[in-house]
Structures are given as C-alpha cells and as structure tokens.
Amino acid sequence: MIRAFCVSLVFMAFFNCSNNPDTFVEHVEGYWEIDEVTLKDGSKRDYNFNSTIDYIEITDSLTGFRKKLKPNFSGTFETSNDAEQLKIVLENDSLNLYYKTPFHSWKETVLNATKDELLILNANKDMYLYKRYEPINLEE
Q1: How far apart are CA 99 and CA 92, in angstroms?
Q2: How many CB atoms sit inside 10 A of residue 116's CB?
C-alpha cells in the first residue's frame, strides 16, 4: 500500500511538473534504449544491457513510426520491415503517442522528454525511462 502511494506521488510529480508538453515533441525522435521500468506496483527493473533499441522517426505532420533495431559492432543495425505507425497528439495538457499496427492500437503518454531522456507512461501505468542510445566504441 505504501509502495503504491509512493508510485502515485512520483507519477503526480512527473505528470504535474512545469514542463510544457509542446517542448517534448522535438526530443521524441531518435534512437532510444530502455534504462529503467517502474511498474505500477512500484517495483523497478534496471536495464544494464539492451539487445535492441527503439528508433522513432517523426515527420512535420506529427506522424511517423517506431522500429526495433539490433545494433551491430560495426555501427550498423539489423531490423525487420515491421514498424509501429504513430501519431503525436497534444491533448489535455499532455503529449500522447498513438500507435497502430495491423493487429493492435494503443496510447502512451510522454511525461518528460529532453535531449538525453524520454519518460513514457503506458496503458498499464508502467513508466519507461529511456536514455538516448550511444553506440559502443570499441576503439577507446
């Protein structure tokens, strides 16, 4: 019970922060990897290694897609032709991402977006904290 209350406080702090959702749009596009997931029960899972990353591309019309990519050591990516179509909608003082595939559609809410981090709340009330993907440099 206490854990759920703490999660609610964290959610309200992120959701009610003074950030303007209009400013999030410019940061959504790019290569992202999951850093941490906070489930609605308050439990957390850290992601120290990701075998795949998300690539989000947005057009001027606030539509685009999200694809899963698998980074290679050569600096390239492996991927399939599968992509989730998305539409960005500013509504009720929130920035929402509406996804659609031939099999399913769903909504996620961007709680915060900066050049380095992306915080998303899904329909299950799980919070996904992404960090900007940086390729591994084996030459250092």
Answers
A1: 18
A2: 10
By the 8 A CB rule, do 99 and 66 touch? yes
Per-residue pLDDT of the chain (140 residues; tens, 9 = 90+): 445 444 444 444 444 444 789 899 999 999 999 999 999 999 999 998 899 999 999 998 999 999 999 998 877 899 988 999 999 999 999 999 999 999 999 999 999 999 999 999 999 999 999 999 987 766 65
Domain boundary assignment for the chain: 2-132
Query: How many helices (H) does the chain have, and how many strands (E)?
Result: 2, 10
Residue bearing tokens 């600096």: 75
DSSP, res 123: T
For 121, the token pair is 């709340």
Query: Cα separations (Å) of 36 from 30, 116, 129?
Result: 18, 14, 5
State the residue for tokens 């500013």: 90
Say what the pTM is: 0.81
Q: Of 2.40.128.280, 2.40.30.200, 2.60.120.620, 1.10.540.10, which CATH number belongs to 2-132?
A: 2.40.128.280
